[in-house]
Amino acid sequence: MATPKTSLSTSRPPSTPPASLSSYSNRGLSHPSNLDPLTGAQKQICKVKPLTIKVNDDLYGTVPAFLHIPQDYRREQAEGSEKTAAILLSGAGGGVVGPSSMYLSMADKLASLNKAIPVMRLDYRYPARNKYCVADVLAAMKYLETGYGLSRFVLVGWSFGGAPVYTLGGSDERVVGCATVASQTADTDGIQSVAPRPVLLMHGTGDKTLRYSCSQRLYDEYGTEGERELKLFEGDDHALTRNAREAETKLCEFVMKCAGVEIGGAEQDMLREELIGVEDRVALMKEGGDLKGGEKVE
User: Which residue of 3, 110, 127, 184 shows the fewest CB atoms closer than 10 Å?
Assistant: First the structure.
């Protein structure tokens, strides 16, 4: 049995073309399959905009994304206020649905609230290379700020995704909170500068891909000057398949807290609902490109 690692980053130059939006067409990756809990709560289902975002760095190019936004959202709604969006990042192979396909579900839930929070599921041009992935996230932030008036961002990352999350969390004041699932420790020194902004770290103690001590170390490196939470799921794997529902709810609640959004009643119940069947979560990860680049469920 291989020993779990602490990093899935690579320093090798990119040798393949970047991902394109066409890679995800006709795969059912816009909305989760079960929208009944949203319609049952009398929610107006958000719209999903497939995007190609231009990145201006030394490699240039574009990065694919899916933006979940309220049906009636207008840029002027954010004028004169600090409006928050969440950006969700996958692992060392890129992808757009996240661990156990949580991103696909939580994006619809958050963007369909009465006080909706726009959510972007962002791929990478060159996964596992933090320099370029950070540039991808910066381009996404600029796109959301320029096009939608969104000026505050909650970053969520899985596995390798912890690297761009904490790099930007430690250097960009527009980031108001950072959450990671099964994060690596390479390229995450920025977590030492995130406080007093909050962090949430989750990890399965049975993770065979990245050892759970990675999240324990990050929790310690964050320090004591802000709000931090470490949630370990006993015996669970790299994608938290056994506790996906609870982990997804915690991520939603974290994003809402960072955005200053409070809910109750039917909306609170809706957050805990399953929009993706247990049997579909891993299959969707494969369709969404999340099980590449050394990423595994185990």
Answer: 3
Alpha carbon distances (Å) from 180 to 51, 67, 231: 24, 20, 10
| Alpha-carbon 119 to chain mean position | 9
No. of helices (H) and no. of strands (E), the chain: 8, 8
Task: Tell me if 166 sits within 8 A of 194, measured CB to CB.
Answer: yes
**In the structure encoding, which two tokens stand for residue 275, read together?**
């929009």
3-state DSSP call for residue 51? strand
Angle (CA) 71-72-76 rounded to 5° is: 135
φ, ψ of residue 192 to 5 degrees: the values are: -70, -15
CA 242, 197, 156 angle in degrees (round to 5)? Answer: 35
Pairing between β-strand 119-122 and β-strand 62-69 as defined by DSSP bridges: antiparallel
Phi–psi pair at 244, nearest 5 degrees: -60, -40
pLDDT in the model for residue 54: 97
Q: Compute the average pLDDT of residues 98-103.
A: 98
Distances in whole angstroms, Cα of residue 250 to Cα of each of 2, 102, 162, 180: 30, 11, 17, 11
Whether 68 contacts 48, CB under 8 Å: yes
Q: For the chain, give the percent of residues with pLDDT over 70.
A: 97
> What does the block give as tokens for 144?
């959301």
Of 116, 150, 159, which is closest to residue 295 (Cα–Cα)? 159
Give dist(CA 101, CA 291) in Å, integer.
11
Q: How confident is the model at residue 14 (pLDDT cuts 50, 70, 90)?
A: confident
Q: Quick one: how far is CA 174 from the chain centroid?
A: 16
Selected residue with higher pLDDT from 90 and 25: 90
Place 18 in a pLDDT band, splitting at 50, 70 and 90: confident
DSSP reduced 3-state for 164: helix
